[in-house]
Amino acid sequence: MRKRRAKSESSQADERELTRQRVAVVIPAKDESRRIAQTVRAAKAIPHVDLVLVVDDGSEDNTQDVAREAGAVVVRHSHNRGKAAAMETGAAVVAMRDAPGRLPRLLLFIDGDLAETAVNTAPLVDPVLAGEADVSIALLPPQPGAGGRGFVVGAARKAITAMTGWTPTQPLSGMRCLTREAFEAATPLARGWGVETGMTIDLLSQGYVAVEVPCDLKHRPSGKDWKGQMHRAAQYRDVKVAIGSRRLRGVTKKR
User: Fold this and answer.
1) What angle separates helix 226-248 from helix 151-164, to the nearest 10 degrees?
2) Which of 85, 190, 224, 255 is the most buried (most CB within 10 A)?
3) Do 176 and 140 meet the contact criterion of CB atoms below 8 Å apart?
4) At residue 240, does pLDDT exceed 80?
5) Phi, psi (rounded to 5 degrees) for 13
6) Given this model, what pLDDT does residue 222 score?
7) 214 forms bridges with which residues in the sheet?
């Protein structure tokens, strides 16, 4: 007589499904109708991704319609609330879609203007999936047309090093993969363009592990014109605010 199996093949398959780690791509976007469809389609091709969510942060164009037609789940802010708010909205929507009893999805934040290169953020998932890091940050190659002189990057890097002991190469990189636990540990996020600097300081000061991963990405850089200079000025202001608020709170590396 044939022995009865301890577990049926279907129940084993169910268990594997419950423990399979999934990834949600969250894309904060404003007025990205020209590139968002390519970005969404490329993001859907990333291994382990089963949800691509676009947070339309008060766009004045048809970003939300284009993103939805490309296969993304779309939520919209009625007015522009900034990147940090869009990230928090996206994470909250993903949490609502995480099934009870299953592992919470990893969160992969990417920019809406990456177009077809969005699929190249895939290497960010691996170290977090393997438990080697709590957050992975994309290292981008030099971007043609970029007009910055490194003032903002230098200020962010110097502060992160002083407050955490870790020196990032690209502290302002917005392409990041992190666990749900790490994301919640970093909230509330720093406002405006200080979100990445604040997140890095907050996580490392609490003992979370960060790594930088080279990714072949192309996005629309800030140029040397007046608009680009104003953007960098706003970045510098927000980064300094994020740093200053953490210094006031006495944030330092966890020992």
Assistant:
1) 20
2) 190
3) no
4) yes
5) -65, -40
6) 55
7) 139
